[in-house]
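Figure 2 data, in text form.
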Amino acid sequence: MRVCTLFNRILQLPGASVCSVAFTDSGLVLGLRRPRNRMLLCPCGTKTWASYDRSRRRWRHLNFGPTRVFLEADVYRLDCRGCGAVRTEQVPWARAGARHTRDFDDVIGWLAQRADKTTVAKLLGCAWETVDRAAKRLVDEHLDDARLNDLYRIGIDEISYKRGHKYLTIVADHDTGRVVWISPDRNKAALEDFFDALGEQRTAALQAITLDGSSIYRPVVVQRAGHATVCLDPFHVIQWCNEALDSFYQSQPAPAPLYLTTGHTRQWPWRRLRLALRSGSERLNENQHELINNIRRHNYRLYRAWELKEQLRELYRSVDPVDAPRYLTRWCTSALRSKIRAFETLARRIRRHFDAVIAAVQLGLSNSRLEGINSKIRVIQRRGYGHPTPESLMTMVYLCLSGINLSLPTQR
């Protein structure tokens, strides 16, 4: 078997064949030959017979063991009528503007979804900037406008990526768990850009949108997708309640010592009491139950604050969704009558978001999927030891969390 025939069977390059083999100081160089009677393809998709000029170019391919492999071929430039400019033709074994083959890029992307860029670069024998550019090419190729189709229930949240209040706006699909939109800002304009990309027809198909308690995104949602049901994330509602309980707890004076039946005294375990107040009633141990009962006897207002917190938690745990509006109305009335200022303020706040709170209960939606996505983004950040620009981080988030499935050359 001829050497060129052997490499043709190994590489299986589309639209080209190996015509020469040379061992150089840089590695193994395989010369490629293509049919002469072929049309030139512009990266924009336009085909033409006319060429402008040509040059010899080289692309990095996957290594053969410890030996680096390069593909070399003549490439034409064409005067594209579609682009209105002189551009280099698109070759079938490499992506537009790349000096690496598609197989090399695909291996980089597959590894980058699972490891940091430095590890990938060391494994493949390239620079980490090469890994960054390959990841961007893969995202540009696989991430198209079709990802915004069939969106019915979405969640909107933000995540900090740098000190100094630098945030990304994340939009995810509740049904698939995929990230569908990222913006390097946390403002109304960022969400406006999402709805502009979504379009009126796809916006009309939205049924429910989950938000946190921030006032940044809700005005845009009401203006651009007023027909969709807005759901307030239960986690943030309970967080408001815990903050109210902490505020009232910190305003209380330290209680007098406890008098035991033995005649001795014991100081209140103030710190352990704080932990017991913050914990859910179903997770309290025997000692914490005793602390709560002692608070009921010695500081009923603090016990009442804890009881209001637990009653609000029951809204999401055991209350029938049909009875949720009546239950929450009674809870707000009880909070206002408690004469605990922090809970009075909380009750007024919940009344302003009443419909969104009830919608989250009845539809069973929350931003928990978004919080899970934020945790994965933190892993991407730590794995890469930070990213130089928000665009670089956005590229990695799209590559790992938007449903891009890459296959290795050995799996095809």
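Caption note: Confidence is low (pLDDT under 50) at residues 258-265.
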